[in-house]
Structure formats: structure tokens, C-alpha cells
Design brief:
CATH class of the largest domain: Alpha Beta
Number of helices: 13
InterPro entries: Aminotransferase_I/II_large, Kynurenine-oxoglutarate_AT, PyrdxlP-dep_Trfase, PyrdxlP-dep_Trfase_major, PyrdxlP-dep_Trfase_small
Shape: globular
CATH architecture of the largest domain: 3-Layer(aba) Sandwich
Bound molecules: 4'-deoxy-4'-aminopyridoxal-5'-phosphate, glutamine
Domain Aminotransferase class I/classII large: 25-385
Helix content: 25-40%
Number of strands: 14
EC number: 2.6.1.17
Distance between the termini: 40 Å
CATH topology of the largest domain: Aspartate Aminotransferase, domain 2
Order of helices and strands: HEHHEHEHEEHEHEEHEHHHEEHEEEH
Enzyme class: transferase
Structural class: alpha/beta
Radius of gyration: 20 Å
Family: Belongs to the class-I pyridoxal-phosphate-dependent aminotransferase family.
Length: 388
């Protein structure tokens, strides 16, 4: 294995899911729902297979899906993308992220990631020959919310900085970046002529939407950002279809053109029968998404309250599938050690937050639990966790 990939041999999600399968543990580690997405979308995919939509779709994605993606962005966020030149369908958000970095980062360029960061960012930066610069989210001592340290962001950027990767709603902390935080990032990007790559895969999974400051905003809509932002999202979380791997990237013509150049030699194309189904879902299943979002909010509360009863110190989660919890009140100090023992010991799998960090000390005590599971599964996991 080449040296630049040696730190990335096995992902924490694969490791913990394998451990859950081996021990029969309840898997609150890897974030995937245990119920299916909207019936109309599933039927569309079945019908597409039956009707012969089984060969290579066009490289940039089927036209009806690109149009549906562009319409969705315009309706929700007011951002306008030409479906022919500014929208690219990818094999999940993961491919969009990797293709973007391969296409836009020269060897030696610096890429800022906000720590804790989703694990594929570091591997994709490394594959592109880039240099990762981590900027921390810091937990507010009063509320526990993880907030962006803008001073640290300013200190981390310089002449070698090419891009910043921004993920909101944020995996693993559940933070939704506020208008002020996004405005701060935008200012840094504009002043230093930096590209923004935004990972918005949890854009629909925000729970306290009515509260000012807790609504999904896209960095691309801020002044001076449309022309320097590549927006990435995916159907996986919005429509509970994580295995379909239909994602997309939207942005200025030249950025999308560049990403397309890399993408065509990674997978060329994929997911033929799923593409019309996702196009249908973006147009007709957003009411389903709203109901799912309300259910997920209740699950967040159920798991958060249950973890608190079990003795964890529970941090607030504003969005995503995840809630983070402090294990120190239970007498443990190391979340990774605990996560390695948990499946065997009590039959529950979870993810240590330090797996998302270059500097593990700040989050050593934190464990991430996924609540995108049926209530009876959450309740059984909580029953087991109370034995800790
Ligand atoms: N970004 C984040 C923050 C994620 O949590 C995930 C996992 N779903 C992805 C990207 C990957 O998305 P996809 O499955 O569409 O490749
Ligand atoms: N995005 C999911 C998570 O954070 C899982 C992704 C994966 O297995 N690579 O748990």
C-alpha cells in the first residue's frame, strides 16, 4: 500500500459494524436507518429495473435527475444551477468529495477540515496529494454545543490554502452551523481566495428548525460565495437509501467541469435505475421527508434522555443521525477503549469521536451514538447501556 494511504486501511465504521455483526450487538455505530425510504421512490426503482433502465446512464447523470436537483436547490435555497453544466451526479457524496479534491487540489496545496471531521475527508485529501489542516469545533462549556473557532480558522489559512471542507449539519457532533459561523467562513474564503466544498448530506435532518440559528443554510447562497462554492449532497440520508449511493455536486461551471473530469475516470457513471427514483423523490417525497424528520427528532430525544438516565453526559444534537455523549460520568476516560469493549460486554456498538480527529485529546471522552433506528431497537440498546 502506498504511504499516503497507509493511515487509512480500515474505516472505524467498517471495524465497528464488523464487531457488531460478529457479536450480534445492536449497531448504533455506523449511521444508516433500519427502515426504508418512501414507497413511491422504491417503486420507481423497481419499475425502472423492469423497464430496462439498466445500462450506463449519461456520465453527468440522467437529465431528469439533474433537473430535479437544480429545482430542489432553487426552491429551498434560492441558488440557481444550470442542470446541464452546473450539476453532476456522483456515486454518493463520497465520490463527489474525492473527485472534487482530485480535480481541484494540486500536490502540496492545503485543505482545511473542521475537526472532528468525516473520515473520508482525510483520505481524499491524501489521495489528492494535499495537506490537511484541521481547525477545531470547540464544545461550549455552558451548553455543550460544538461551535466553530473562527480565530483558529483564520490562523490556519494562508497562501497555500486551496479549499475548506465544510460539513453542516455536522457529523459527528450534530452541530448546525449558525448564520454567523457561515458568514465567518465566507469572509475567510473571500479574503484569502479559497474554494469552499460543502458537504450537505444532512441538509434535511435538522430538528429545531423553527429556532433562529437552527435552519439549514448553504454557504453557496452567501455574498461572493456562489462563484467559489462546490455544494455536495446525496439521497442517502434524505430518503433513507444509504446503499443506493446517488450523490451530486453543484457549483460554478468551471468547478463542476473539473470534478466531472475526475469523476469520469473513477466510476464514469452509476446507479442507473436509482437515478429516476431519486428524481421522483426530490420532486414528490419531501412531505415524507418532513414526517421522517419529525420522527427522527423524537428518536434524538428518546436516545438522549435514555443515555442521560444511563449516566452519560449527553451533548445537544441539532441535526444529523447522531448524538455524542461524555463517558466520564460513568467512570470511563477513553471512548475508543469503551467502544472496542461495548459489543462484547453489553451488546451495543458505537463510534469513538476521536476517530474523527487528528488531535484526540479534546474528544477522548466522547462517544457517538446513531438514533436512526426503530424505537424498540433504541429501547433495547438503552436497556443494555444502563448496565454500564
Ligand atoms: N459526508 C458525511 C458527513 C457523511 O456522514 C456521509 C455518510 N453518509 C457521507 C458524506 C457519505 O455520503 P454517501 O453515502 O452519499 O456517499
Ligand atoms: N456516514 C455514516 C456514518 O458516519 C457511515 C459511512 C460509512 O460507513 N463509511 O456513520
Amino acid at each position: 500500500l502506498v504511504s499516503r494511504l497507509q493511515p487509512f486501511t480500515s474505516t472505524i465504521f467498517a471495524e465497528m459494524t464488523a464487531s457488531a455483526v460478529r457479536t450480534g450487538a445492536i449497531n448504533l455505530g455506523q449511521g444508516f436507518p433500519d427502515t426504508d425510504g418512501p414507497m413511491g421512490m422504491l417503486q420507481m426503482a423497481r419499475r425502472a429495473i423492469a423497464e430496462g433502465v439498466n445500462q450506463y446512464p449519461p456520465g453527468p447523470g440522467r437529465p431528469e435527475l439533474r433537473q430535479a436537483i437544480a429545482d430542489h436547490r432553487l426552491t429551498r435555497y434560492g441558488t440557481e444551477y444550470d442542470p446541464d453544466t452546473q450539476v453532476l451526479v456522483t456515486a454518493g457524496a463520497t465520490e463527489a468529495i474525492a473527485a472534487a479534491l482530485l480535480a481541484l487540489v494540486e500536490p502540496g496545496d492545503e485543505v482545511v477540515v473542521i475537526e472532528p471531521y468525516y473520515d473520508s475527508y482525510a483520505a481524499a485529501v491524501a489521495m489528492a496529494g494535499g495537506v490537511r489542516r484541521a481547525v477545531p469545533l470547540r464544545s461550549d462549556p455552558a451548553t455543550g454545543r460544538f461551535a466553530l473557532d473562527l480565530a483558529a480558522l483564520r490562523a490556519a489559512v494562508g497562501p497555500a490554502t486551496r479549499a475548506i471542507l465544510v460539513n453542516s449539519p455536522h457529523n459527528p457532533t450534530g452541530t448546525v452551523l449558525s448564520g454567523d459561523e457561515l458568514a465567518g467562513i465566507a469572509e475567510v474564503c473571500r479574503e484569502n481566495d479559497i474554494l469552499a466544498i460543502t458537504d450537505e448530506v444532512y441538509e434535511h435532518l435538522i430538528f429545531d428548525d423553527a429556532r433562529e440559528g437552527s435552519r439549514h443554510r448553504t454557504l453557496a447562497a452567501l455574498p461572493g460565495m456562489t462563484e467559489r462554492t462546490l455544494v455536495i449532497s446525496s439521497a442517502g440520508k434524505t430518503f433513507s437509501a444509504t446503499g443506493w449511493k446517488i450523490g451530486w455536486a453543484c457549483g460554478p461551471v468551471e468547478l463542476v467541469h473539473a470534478v466531472k473530469a475526475a469523476k469520469q475516470f473513477l466510476t464514469f457513471t452509476g446507479g442507473a435505475p436509482f437515478q429516476p427514483a431519486v428524481a421522483h423523490a426530490l420532486r414528490h417525497e419531501l412531505d415524507w421527508v418532513e414526517r421522517m424528520r419529525a420522527e427522527l427528532a423524537a428518536k434524538r430525544d428518546r436516545l438522549s434522555e435514555g443515555l442521560a438516565t444511563a449516566g452519560f453526559g449527553v451533548l445537544p444534537s441539532e441535526g444529523t443521525y447522531f448524538v455524542c455523549a461524555d463517558v466520564r460520568p460513568l467512570g470511563y476516560t477513553d471512548g475508543a477503549q469503551l467502544c472496542r469493549a461495548l459489543p462484547e460486554q453489553i451488546g451495543v456498538a458505537a463510534i469513538p469521536v476521536q476517530a474523527f480527529c487528528d488531535e484526540p485529546d479534546a474528544t477522548r471522552h466522547l462517544v457517538r451514538f446513531a438514533f436512526c433506528k426503530r424505537n424498540e431497537v433504541l429501547d433495547e440498546a438503552l436497556r443494555r447501556l444502563r448496565r454500564l
